[in-house]
Amino acid sequence: MIVQRRPFIATVALLIVLGLSRVGLATDVPSPNLGAQQVVHLLDYVGADYPGAVSGGQVVNDKELAEQIEVLAEAARVAAKLKPSTGNYVPEDAVMGVKRLVEAHRPEAEVAAAAKNAASQLVAYFDLVQAPRQQPSRPRGQQLYEQHCSVCHGVDGHADTPRALQYNPRPANFHSPEVARSLSPLRVSRTVRFGVPNTGMVPFDFLSEDDRWDIAFYVSELDHSAAPVSVPEAHMFGLADLADESDDELRADLAGAGVRPSDTEAALSDLRRRAPYATLTL
């Protein structure tokens, strides 16, 4: 299932429908690259989920705050195993810097910026791949989604199935605006790989990288019912952009490129439903 605890988790958590009993984080770090990806995933999680614990510098949920600190401690533990080959960069230090901000109940924007900066450093230093290595397959993504996800999320993504009703928190409804706006294939793909800490969302590490991307792109199109319309301005988006950017980020880019507001949703639908399967430009 995808547990819908708050918008970020609802956006990125995915798939626990096979009766697996593992809970929590993947603790083995077989390579620096994989470990760096896991740390980036956890920093992303904290950066977006922190407002559920602290608002305006005030603690609004003690349990959630403790969870944020625990997640960052796990991220620091994984980061400590990463051994950069050159320079003075210490991944653990960047993670601990974010942890200190959270422990000090710093404002949400400050924590989010620090988490994003720390994640960006890891992506750059370890040259992490942020996009599919090959063209995603929509038929394969739909097949995998229906096989592993639809029992909780429904074939159409509304999460109104009998299985979904058994869970609390409920699986994510991909048509919910607060979920769909921040959805990106990259975020979904990472969550499929590493799971969501302290929830029933386990790492689905038996799926290949290509499988995860196929599912991620398919999930990202579920909320788009408008007939796809390709506009000239949308041709600037390569596969890496479509993988990394959320719906709201793509909307902002389309507006900045001069797409009329009346055309935005149709153009966005094209970017989610057609474009990923028609371009190899990274």
List the helices and strands and how they pair.
Layout: H1 7-12, H2 32-49, E1 54-55, E2 58-59, H3 62-80, H4 91-103, H5 108-125, H6 138-148, H7 150-153, H8 177-180, H9 185-194, H10 209-221, H11 239-244, H12 247-256, H13 261-273
Antiparallel strand pairs: 1-2
Helix pairs in contact: 2-3, 2-5, 2-9, 3-4, 4-5, 6-10, 9-10, 12-13
Would you mind describing this structure in some detail?
It contains 13 helices and two strands; from the N terminus they run ααββααααααααααα. By secondary structure, it is mainly alpha-helical. It has a two-stranded antiparallel ribbon. Strand 1 and strand 2 form a beta hairpin. The two termini are 31 Å apart.
Briefly, what is this?
The chain is mostly helical. 51% of the residues lie in helices and 1% in strands. Helix 2 (32-49) packs antiparallel against helix 3 and helix 3 (62-80) runs antiparallel to helix 4 (91-103).
Key attributes of the depicted protein:
single chain, 282 residues, mainly alpha, two-stranded antiparallel ribbon, 2 strands, disordered N terminus
